[in-house]
Write a structure and sequence with these properties.
The structure is a homodimer of 240-residue chains. Chain A is built from eight helices and twelve strands. With 240 residues, the first copy, chain A, is α+β, with helices and mostly antiparallel strands. In chain A, helix 5 (163-173) packs across helix 8 (230-237) and helix 6 packs across helix 7. Mean pLDDT of chain A is 85; it is low at 1-14. The first copy, chain A, binds a DNA duplex (30 and 30 nucleotides) through residues 159-160, 162-163, 186-188, 196-200, 202-203, 205-206, 219-221.
Chain lengths: 240, 240
Amino acid sequence: MPLRTPQIRCQGRSNCGTCELRQEMVCAEVSLGDLVDFHAGIDDLNFETNAPVFSGGTGVDAVYCIRSGAVKMVRTDLAGAHRIVRVLRKGDIAGLESAFSEFYEHSAVAVSAVKACRIPIADFRRFVTTHQSLQMRLMQKSRDALRETEEWLADLVSGTIPARTRVARLLLRLRIEGTENIHRIGIEDMAAIVGITPETVSRVVSDFVSRGFLEKIGGNSAYRNFRGDIASLTQVACTA
Amino acid sequence: MPLRTPQIRCQGRSNCGTCELRQEMVCAEVSLGDLVDFHAGIDDLNFETNAPVFSGGTGVDAVYCIRSGAVKMVRTDLAGAHRIVRVLRKGDIAGLESAFSEFYEHSAVAVSAVKACRIPIADFRRFVTTHQSLQMRLMQKSRDALRETEEWLADLVSGTIPARTRVARLLLRLRIEGTENIHRIGIEDMAAIVGITPETVSRVVSDFVSRGFLEKIGGNSAYRNFRGDIASLTQVACTA
DNA sequence: CGTGTACTTGAGTGGGCTCAAGCAGGGTGG
DNA sequence: CCACCCTGCTTGAGCCCACTCAAGTACACG
């Protein structure tokens, strides 16, 4: 997979003013005026599926606000295996946990077509130290991330829970808010999340499809999705 | 198991002044003078093994700074099973993630003899809003908690990694800093962390003991421990 | 039209689960 | 002081789910 440089579409100020996410994002606490004052170099980026956003261990140079799509956060375990510890979605901030470290803790990789705003780390740190209420908001974001990760631990990952159940729970978590559509990430990625083999994931997903719990949408394009029978999946998810 | 009220040993001001942990705890950012000004009702508490610190879903009334011992943070999964998502140790803060919520997200239970400082939530919130540098410290604590939980996810919990390896990794994480002693939590608790059955944990631990990788110390008292052969355990922990 | 990637499907094996019985230690009461 | 229980741990036998290895298929892309 070639490492493609993301396209820069437009710059800072103009789109922040019209951004529908502005109220729930980091920058909600930063007035438009401040953004201008700081000459903030906020870029609006597009990433295609499998494009890296940043790489674990490299120097921190920015944080990214996800505006659409999904980004996987990958860690490496003691034996060197990759493990996905969280999936960021609309409204999440990639790199926040590393914002005050020298190097990124995770690798971040787009798992679908992604739109994101890139905030240079120097600007970000300046915003934070000069805007008290922003700090509170970041604590909240950080707490949200913690809760999400803990819920993964509790729900998705447990050898004593059957693979069927766990995959169903994962699918429900990947549901696109308010719809019956589900982010369709790769089989390999699903395996790296619930901690089972890709083959088993494939078998379970195939089974769900044949039962009509899932329907594949959009072929294998970057915008592919599942359409899920939420009720049935929920039932499977609650199986002990 | 009877629910015993913890003993109150002494109050606020006096022990904060001499606390060896003061520099690394929350209150590092709060001057002794401020503590007095706020008439802070910080209590010094003891919990015995299996004593609840607080219970998930109940109203948040305090946060607790752990001064010694270990506390398990318990979540309930979709099917109602208990899952331990983190173990707090010396220097950690129990309830921090709920500090700005109405109800506790977890149940917190002592897994050994625990000494902790109780900070009433009203005082805590006042500290936070009036001390900027404290906010930064809390973000850091929150980030530490997130990292710890993610490392659990990556290292401890994966159906594709053999139970032996995972138990070895858990034991290394429960190591008491700088020593070859290891917090000896119950078999049941270890199972609830790595996501396997108590029987399997027991078999693995017994095996480690018979090989000399582990030695049981202190019988079954509240102060029991393992003494571990760190090198051998590390080797097992790195087995794919 | 060939090539590569991602996914599917199959057969066989084994690790860990289940169920169940046995054991040790500490606390309680006679 | 001992008999008792209760809780937490240990150990065993058998089975089943999910892993492993391997081959086959579908689809996208050049």
